[in-house]
Each structure stands twice: as structure tokens, then as C-alpha cells.
Amino acid sequence: MTPKLTPRHLPPRRLLAVAAALALFGGTVEAQTVPDQSMPTTPASTGSSADTTSPTTVAPPSNARPPEVPNCPLGSFRCPPRPLNYSMCRPNAMLSFYDPTLSKDSSVRDISNTYVWAQRVDSSNQSVYHLEGDVKMQRADQRMQSDVADYNDDTTDYDARGGVHYQEVGQLVSADHMRGNQDASTGIADNVAYQMLTNRGNGVAVQGQMLDDQRSRYLQATYSTCDVGNHVWEIHAKDIRTDKETGEGVAKDATMYLYGVPFFWLPSFTFPINDERKSGFLTPTIGNSSRSGFMVSAPYYLNLAPNYDATLDPRIYTDRGVMLASEFRYLVPGSIGQLNFEFLPNDHGPSDPDGLANTKGDDRWLLKYNDVTHLYGPWSLNVSINRASDSSYLRDFGNDLYTATIGTLSSSAYINGGGTWGKAYWSASFGADAYQNVDPGLPDTVAQYKRWPRATFNVDYPINRWLEVGANTEAVAFRKEDSVEGNRLDVYPYLQADFQGTAWFVRPRVAYRYTAYDLTGNYQQYGFYGLLGQGQTSPFNSGSPSRSLPVVSVDSGLIFDRSTSLFGTSYTQTLEPRLYYLYVPYRNQDNIPLFDTNLMSFDTWQLFTTNMYSGADRQMNANNLSAMLTSRLLDDNGVERLSASFGQIRYFTQQRVQVPNSNTTVPVPTDWSGSDYAIDLTSQLSDDWRLMSQYQWNPNTRLTDLGSITLQKRIKTDGIINFSYRYRRYPGSTTPMLEQYDASIVYPISDRWRLLGHWTYSTLDKKTIEALAGVEYDSCCIALRLVGRHYVNTYNYTTQLGSANTAIMLEVEFKGMGQFTGQSENALRNGILGYQ
């Protein structure tokens, strides 16, 4: 007769050694985790929690589909990256002994009793317990099962044989034979197979050894995140050692296999075995560019301290030479910052194909430094330094269109403060700004004035719930070679009220603007755009010009709503008329230089602003009335499904304040009676369709000044298609400035394959600005992305001389191991609206 399974306590001082010894495998859970470099703090672990598995199934949480990430909302400029997806992986057969109801608390192991179940127990030897038949031993979150087990109560030796199965909070382990000593915290397991529960890591080892309670060793071991028994890729190592105390592991003679074929080998490398950052090589990057040739990089991560780290990234460009890129990050009390520096000596690249610059033989470098430091109370120091060795650097070494087409690098350093003082709200800053031209198609004179230094102070004091008074002030010194220089003080106090009800508002505002200048140096020899030509006369007839004027406005509006239905769906429709009156008297400003002022692009926002110029060097005159009518459709959840606006500014007096163009220093007033008619339309009646459109028609020239339309359609769950048309005319001109068509798509063929495409065509230049085509493949443990791109990376608006770059990028992601390259990510995010 087979005896009934009965639990039995072993002596409390002798917690079963097998359960304790098998903790040697616990450190392998994160054995191949790539260090997180997003910031110098401990990264969150990936994978699902074991608690998410239902008690009625034996499938481990690593096989469960990760939490669904909401689709990126239509109209979003940039979408978050998709998380690792293991939903295509199969349930792993080796995990049939997994018990999701076992405790997940490993912190109580040392104070917990060990319980033993067996069909037969032989204790005839007073020191040795012999257990047979479905042996099960459990302590806290640990459980071991075997056919036979022996335990010596005197020496604490143990020996488990036949179908050994072990489970703890972090993983599952099976072995043929396991023996060791509890007091010495040693153990040896033969023919080991393991499966992680916090990620999909799994593998086998010929032998696993626990050297002590902190250090372990594995001989002839493998690791992969693929399905058990179907490893598309895996790592083989002759010797893997882990140390829980230091949080690191070392693999000797390690080879990576893809479909059983070895393709990458290292004699030794280190890796983290927990969530702490660890020094070591990161995944290499391979790329190709028609400007710099093939590129290979092998970054090395340095975990210098818990609050600062560094990365050294040596790169080889076949057409230009060897570069060393570096990154240093720190987080100290009251300060956080990052320093990036790239340096390539003696560039041996070919001469510039555009003939705009020649950097052959030059040292090339790029510096980026950002720091935020708390000083005292409400005061902090913000520093941002961005400099390049030459104007062609970003074009030659930028890996995407966005970087390659940056025209200016800005640097700044400011002391900022703000807060409350009684009832008043205030903010202040003091610092400087500098700019560098990095567009090789333009001369360095196009760079903005240095603001060296600049100070601001803003205050707002609420007198009561509807009335407030305040002021905006700025003092700045402008510096630029071969241009008029000077200092400017701009003081802008105001008094404003806010009267409103549930369906109406009236907001009157009275302000006074005083702007004074102190021109320095020999300012009489300069015009608005630098040195005077022969026969020209400087407009700057005074070294201390000033301007003062009142600015009066009244903003008012009504809000009506009603219930309506469209296509069988109920909505709330609003009707929102708005009137804005602005009065600013004319002041002659022809003798004031243009330091940081430009005409802003006209849109519906411009209907309700006090100035159409950026900066303080020009304040427009106005006797205007703006009117706009807006209607919205809101669904039952308050989501805006449709918004349409139509508006115009009516001018009761001439617009006399103008910015002179590069061909004349004499402003030409306009006699327009009204601005462009501006129309904005946004519609998303369906969750899968979105339409955005802008249109501006000039009633004076009877020409379209701006037209744009963007259409988005979501395809299935993770696909999207975009089409847009953009047209803009130079202000006050009949000449078009831009006319482009743009189309892009992410098309899911199946749950594994997606096609990618992006095309931008300029009708004015009669050529393609950018073309991209690619394919993505996703499977259980490996993802591929192959992208080919052809894009214009320079453009000179005077000569229309441009050059193009062609690149092919292959990105391979071994899930759980990091990515081989990331060059295509920015191109896809910037080129395909809604890419995720």
C-alpha cells in the first residue's frame, strides 16, 4: 500500500539545503540584460510580473502578451516606441511544473521553515533522511521536486536525483542530479535547463556550480530569449561566472549563433546580473553614407559610480578616418548634466561635392554640453553649449535628415529664478546667447546676433479676481562682426481685466511699450544688412534712438452650444464668435536696427496678437478689428471630433511699420484694408481617420498665400498612411516660396511583416527631396529593419544648388540583448507621421 503524502518538518536549524543551494541559479535572471543608458539611475526591469498569470494555467508570465500600449493618437508629431513584443512566442513545454500560486516573497527565506512531502521517508539512519517518490521540498518562494533525495542532518550534505525541478520567484530550473552542502552554501547540478520568469531568458548548461552564497559558475552554458527548443539566436560560453554582491557576470570564450551559425565571438565580456548598470561593450553600430562611407562603431560603457557614467564610442568612417565620440553624464545633489564630444583628426574625406566647403585635412569635432544646477532658493543655472568645428559637420556626420538640415547651433547660459512675492508672480533671468551657422550653403553672416548679455524680469500682480497689473522687461546687448551693434532696453507694463460668464468673456488690456537703444562703435557705416554699399546712406542717424507708444486691446467672445446628430451619432455643437480690437499708434522706426526681429508667419493665432513681428525692434501700428467664427463638434465623451475656424483682420489705418528687405532700406507701407482670410479645419469623426487643413487667401492680390492639407488613416492596429500637400507664398509677393507633396505609409502585411515608405517631392525644384523605402520583420525573439534612403541634405536658396545623400541601414534587434543600430529610428519618426 502506498503511503499517503504527508508533510514533515525538518529540524528548524537545518533548513533544507537543496532549496537554499538552488538559489545559485537566481542570479542568472538578468544575466544578459543590456545596461540602460537613458539616464544615470537604476532602470526599470522589463517583462511581465509572475503575479499576472492565472492560477488555472501553467503558462509562465514570460509567455503572456505584454500590456497593450495605446495607439499613438492621430495627429501626434512623434510617437513613443513600441515595447518588446513576445506575443508571437510559443508556450514553453519545459515549464509544465510551474506553479503560479507559489509565494513571490524571497525576503523571508532565512526565517521560513522548510516543508517536505514524499511517498516514503527512511530515517533509520539517525543522521540521514532518505526521501523517495514524488519528493517535494518548499521554503518561502522556493520549491524543489525530485524522484529521490538524501539529506545528512549532521553534515548538511544533500543529494537530489531524478527529474529535479526547481522554482523560485525569478526562474524555473530542471536538472538530472544536484548535490552539495548547506552550511558551506555550495552545490553542483548536472545537465541544467533554466527558464526566467521576469523575462524570456532561457538556456542550458552542462553543469552549474554554486561556489558560495554569492558566486556561481556555469560550464558549457547557453542563453537566448527565443522559444525553448527553437533558438533562432543564442549565446554559447565555455564558462560563465556570476557574482550577486558585485552584480556582474563574466563570460569566457563566448560566441553568438544565428540559426545555428556562429557570427560573433569575444574572448571575454562582462554583463549585469541585476538591474544595476555595468561597464562593458554595448551593441555595435554599422551604417553607410554616400558622404562618409561605411561606418562601424563599438561603444564601451563605463559605470563609474551610481551617479555618473560615461560611454566611449570609437568609430571608423572609411572615407574620412577614425573618430572618437564620448558621452559623460552626472547626477549630483542640485545638478544634472551631460557632456558629448566627438573628434576626428585629419579628415581625409573627398572635397565637398558642392564646392561650398573643403574640410580635407582638418580636425573635425562637435561639442554638446547641457547642465541644470540649483543655486539658491528659486535660482538655478541652465547651461547649453553646442558648437561644431565647421558648418559642414552635421551634414557629413549626421545620421538622419533632421540632424543634417539643422542650420544653426545655439548656445546659452542663464541664471533663472521665479516664484511668488506676496500675491505677485515673478520670473527673472540673466545670461547670454550665441549662435553658429552650420549650413554650408550660407555664409556665416546669416547667424543671429549674439545676445551678450541679456536680462529679463516679468511680474504679474492680481489686484482682485478680475483685475491685474504687470510688466515684461528686457535688457540686452547685441554683438556681431561687420554689423551695427548696440544695447536695447524694452519695458512693457500693462493693466488688464478679465470679465467672464458661462457663455461670454470680455478682456480689456492697456499697455505701454518703451524701447530705447544705445548704438555702439561706428554705427554710421552700417545699413540694415551689414556694411553699406557705394552710394548708400545709413538709416542710423542717431546713436540713441527710442520708441514709446501705448498698446490697447479688447478681446471678447460668445459661446453657444446645442445638441445635434451627424450620421446617426449624437454630438454637442458649439458656435463661438470672437472679436478682437487692437489700437497701436504709428511711430517711425526707420532709424532702429534689426537685431532679433522678423515678420512672423500669418495664421489664425496672429488674429489675436499685439504684434506681427518677433523681437522688440519693430512694434506694428494698428487700428484693427479681428473677427473669427469657430464651430466644434464634441462627442458624448467630450472629445473634439470637428473644429472649423474662419477669420480675418480689418485694418482701419495703413500698416506703415514694415521690415525692410535686403534690397532696400526704405519701408513701404501697405494700403490693405484687410488681412488674408484664414481658414482652419480639423476633423476626426472616426478613430481611424483624421483631416487637418489650413487655407489663406489674400483679397488684395487675389492669390492664395498658404494652403495645406494632411490626411491620416490608421491601418489595422499598427499601420498608418499619410498624405499632405503644402503651399506657401513669400509675404507681399506673387512668387511661391514652397510647394511640396508628401506621402508616407506603414503597412502591416501580417503580424510579422510591415512595409515602410516615405516620399517628398518639390514641384518648384522639380525633384524628389526625400525617398525612403523599407521593411520591418518581427518575431518571437528577433526583429529586423532594412531601410534605404535618398535625401537632399543641402540647399542654397539663391543658386538652388543642392546635394543628396544615399544611405542603406540595417537594424537587427535580438530581443533582450539590445539593437545593433539605431540610425533609422529618427528618419522614420521624423519622416512618417504617427510611426510607432
In terms of topology, how is this protein built?
Blueprint: E1 8-9, H1 17-21, E2 115-117, E3 120-122, E4 128-139, E5 142-152, E6 157-167, E7 171-181, E8 186-196, E9 202-210, E10 215-223, E11 233-243, E12 248-258, E13 261-272, E14 280-281, E15 285-289, E16 293-297, E17 300-305, E18 308-317, E19 321-332, E20 335-344, E21 364-376, E22 379-388, H2 393-397, H3 401-404, E23 408-421, E24 424-437, E25 450-462, E26 467-479, E27 485-497, E28 499-500, E29 504-520, E30 526-527, E31 530-531, E32 546-558, E33 560-566, E34 569-584, E35 598-599, E36 613-614, E37 622-634, E38 640-651, E39 677-686, E40 689-698, E41 703-715, E42 719-729, E43 736-748, E44 753-762, E45 767-778, E46 782-795, E47 802-814, E48 818-819, H4 823-831
Binned strand content = over 45%
Q: Rg from C-alpha positions?
A: 35 Å
Quantity of strands, as a count: 48
Overall form? elongated
The first-to-last residue Cα distance is: 64 Å
- Helicity level: under 10%
Unreliable sequence segments: 1-69
Task: Summarize the structure in words.
- The chain has 836 residues and is an all-beta fold.
- Among the domains are: 8-67 and 87-211, Lipopolysaccharide (LPS) transport protein A like domain (lipopolysaccharide transport protein A fold), CATH 2.60.450.10; 447-674, no CATH class; 701-836.
- Helix content is 3%, strand content 54%.
- It contains 4 helices and 48 strands.
- It has a 31-stranded antiparallel beta sheet that branches. Strands 1, 2, 3, 4, 5, 6, 7, 8, 9, 10, 11, 12 and 13 form a 13-stranded antiparallel beta sheet that branches. It has a two-stranded antiparallel sheet with strand order 30-31.
- A hairpin with a 3-residue loop joins strand 41 (703-715) and strand 42 (719-729).
- It is elongated and about 110 Å long.
- Mean pLDDT is 82; it is low at 1-69.
